[in-house]
Amino acid sequence: MLAGLGKLSFVARQLLLVATMAVVALVIVPWAYLQAGWSGLVTALAAGGVCCVCSCVCLGLFEILRKRQQVLEAMLAGMILRMGLPLGLCLLARAAGQGVWKDTLFGEMSRAGLIYYVLSFYLATLAAETLLVVAVTQNPEAGGRRLSEPMA
């Protein structure tokens, strides 16, 4: 399975990641609507959108840095970006859910369960992106190196 994923083009890997997020959204978004109505639907879509965009950018960053033989830097930059923006959104919603900002959009999103939706989408994007990155890294035809091969 990894060999087939490693042979996919960059655009195909991006589309596969977006398709994976669409499948996850088909499960989470209706449930969010049932729990909190329209605010739950918008909150779940926003969380999915933020996680999907971050993951696509990380996959692009990995592709650029991998070609320069900077795989470790690509993984670290990807972790910071993939985690930083969704975590910042959660912190903003949490802060807005209390005090003077509680009647704003972020306060409503906090009450609708933004943190839970971000965590759900984050785990899905993390799994899908990790699978794609490992497949590319272990595919010699894509410029990767098998883990059993010694480093030159």
Q: What are the main properties of this structure?
A:
single chain, 152 residues, mainly alpha, elongated
What does this structure look like?
This protein starts with a helix and ends in a 15-residue tail after the last helix. The protein is elongated and about 55 Å long. The model has no long low-confidence stretch (mean pLDDT 83). It is built from five helices and no strands. It is mainly alpha-helical and 152 residues long. It has one domain (2-138).
| Topology order in helix (H) and strand (E) letters | HHHHH
Structural class, please?
mainly alpha
Alpha-carbon Rg, integer:
18 Å
Shape: elongated
Give the low-pLDDT segments: none
Q: Please count the helical segments.
A: 5
Short structural description:
The chain has helices at residues 2-6, 10-67, 71-96, 105-112, 114-137. It is mostly helical.
